Amino acid sequence: MSSFSDRLFRAAKLDVNLYEEVEADKGALGQAIAVVILSSIAAGLGSIAKAGISGILTGTILALVGWFIWAYLTYIIGTKLLPTPKTEANYGELLRTIGFSSSPGLIRVLGIIPGLAGIVFLVAGVWMLVAMIIAVRHALDYQSTLRAVGVCIIGWIIQAIVLGIFFSMLR
After folding, report:
1. What is the Cα–Cα distance from 60 to 36, expressed in whole angstroms?
2. Spatial CA neighbour of 112 closest among 164, 29, 69, 50
3. How far apart are CA 136 and CA 93, in angstroms?
4. In the predicted model, is pLDDT for residue 66 greater than 90?
5. 108 contacts 19 by C-beta, under 8 angstroms
6. Among the listed residues 77, 94, 84, 102, the one whose alpha carbon sits nearest the alpha carbon of residue 141
7. How many CA atoms lie within 13 A of 91 on its CB side?
8. CA 151, CA 71: separation in Å to the nearest integer?
9. Residue 70: how many CA atoms within 13 Å on its side-chain side?
10. pLDDT for the residue numbered 1
């Protein structure tokens, strides 16, 4: 089994073998949770000028909840709406692979440098999206990257609608 730091760097390097490895390793869920927490703390630190210290805790909690929801949406969309004959996955596999796809988010801590937050968060967001597409493709045993992109887009739209409704109710 690979060390946590090795897995973290391999996930950020978009190593497809890493995503296959954590998909199969049922013991990697704790590591996936740690990746999501570290990535959200990095985002909180990188945006501390805007969000303050309380933004770190709130952001971490929201990131964990969002990860669970996103993985579940991806599981349902990928296995029920857009499966292929080879698609075989469970919720745990998606939690692990999608959790590791958050590893590029660690660079968001560099947003603390004045004037860099916008570009750092943009680069991290794109990098995390690419990592997630790779994670989804491998977790759902897709042969097509385009199908994985479709699953991610559909999930993103559903999550955006649900969050929009939720936040409009809070007003």
Report:
1. 8
2. 50
3. 9
4. no
5. no
6. 84
7. 7
8. 11
9. 24
10. 55
Q: What is the DSSP string of 103-157?
A: GGGGGGGGGGSTTTHHHHHHHHHHHHHHHHHHHHHHHTT-S-HHHHHHHHHHHHH
What is the spatial distance between Cα 170 and Cα 94, in angstroms, rounded to a whole number? 30
Tell me how crowded residue 84 is: count the other CB atoms within 10 A of its CB.
13
Write the single-letter amino acid at 84.
Answer: T
- Given the structure tokens 């049922």, which residue do they identify? 26
Q: How far apart (Å, rounded) are the C-alpha atoms in residues 132 and 146?
A: 13
C-alpha distance from residue 57 to each of 60, 89, 94 (Å):
5, 32, 24
Phi, psi dihedral angles at 114 (to 5 degrees): -55, 130
Measured between alpha carbons, how far is 170 from 62 in angstroms, rounded to an integer? 15
**Block residue for tokens 């929201």:** 62
What does the pLDDT look like over 111-144, one tens digit per residue? 999 899 899 999 999 999 999 999 999 999 999 9
**Beta carbons of 19 and 138 less than 8 angstroms apart:** yes
How far is residue 79's CA from residue 85's CA, in Å, rounded to a whole number?
A: 10
In the block, tokens 């990098």 appear at 127
